[in-house]
Amino acid sequence: MLRCLKSFYTLNAERLPLNADGRCLLLILLTNDDGIHSEGLVLLRESLLGKHEVCAVAPERERTCVGHAITLHKPLRMKELGKGEYATNGTPADCVLLGVKAVLKKKPDLIISGINKGPNMGQDVNYSGTVAAAKEGAFLGIPSLAISINARSRYHFADAIRVTETIIQVLEENNVLDSTFLNINIPNVFYSKMKGFMVTRLGKRIYNDKVIERTDPRGGKYYWIGGNGELYESLEGTDFNAVERGFVSVTPLGLDVTSNKSINSYKKYFRRIL
Ligand code: MN
Question: How many angstroms separate the alpha carbon of residue 121 from the centre of ligand 1?
């Protein structure tokens, strides 16, 4: 008997029916930050549909770089574009909440955010809507993946989808560990050219951190946050280094950002104050 993806919900593996390939038929919630019509989501959805039950809830327009924003002060709307396909005016994190609590009304077996056009490595994970959606899934106790492709154009989506399917297979046989989710970055090359998987830590991007000041036609100042941040430290064991070498980078991210190694130092600083 095949072991199935075990989550808070699916520990009871008998519950899961098998698909035509004899693999687990999973209930997958798909989302992204590039918008419901983005190729990365559309193609992944098409490919998963034959094997799994798929529900896509994604922003109606691109919401890249919105981070983990959620919408509290205006109504959220959902438009059903087709069976199991919903566009919303919300952020990627909103989409996960809407998908789980308003559409499915139960926890899916897996949440996939992506496949994002562009990498999400190093500090990017703090700005990324793609990563935030997966993090929201992890907050809800659902195994979640953020998947990004390392390119800015000419995306190898078919190859990235094959990688995604391999990852799903791995997860059917193993747990996503508690209070973690996986940030996946895929090199933009043919599947046959990929070197394999590498479990990594976050690397460090080097931003040229310029803020460019301009003047509008009425004399008012405006600003652009500059730099494309394409430079990075290529240290072994990091996501950047793995992808640069042709590996699929798998970074387990945690939900607790406490700096445990600093706790004792700060305890000393704040002793005997007040
Ligand atoms: Mn994006």
Answer: 13
* Interval 96-152: pLDDT, tens: 999 999 999 999 999 999 999 999 999 999 999 999 999 999 999 999 999 999 999
Beta-carbon contacts of residue 173 (< 8 Å; ≥ 6 apart): 2, 3
Query: For 13-203+233-269, CATH number?
Result: 3.40.1210.10
What is the CA angle 67-124-163, rounded to 5? 100
Alpha carbon of 272 to ligand 1 centroid (Å): 47
In angstroms, the CA 149 to CA 154 distance is: 10
- Measured in whole angstroms, the distance separating CA 26 from the mean position of its chain's CA atoms is 18
Helix 39-49 vs helix 157-173: angle between axes, to the nearest 10 degrees? 50
CA 235 to ligand 1 center in whole angstroms: 25
- Split at pLDDT 50, 70, 90, the class of 8 is very low
State the pLDDT at residue 52: 95
- State in Å: Cα 25 to ligand 1 middle: 28
Dist. CA 124 → ligand 1 center (Å): 11
Looking at the DSSP assignment, which residues form a beta bridge with residue 252?
Answer: 182
Q: How far is the CA of 65 from the centre of ligand 1 (A)?
A: 7
Instruction: Report pTM.
Output: 0.92
Distance (Å) from CA 231 to ligand 1 centroid: 19
Distance CA 65, CA 58 (A): 15
**Ligand 1 mean position, distance from CA 125 (Å):** 11
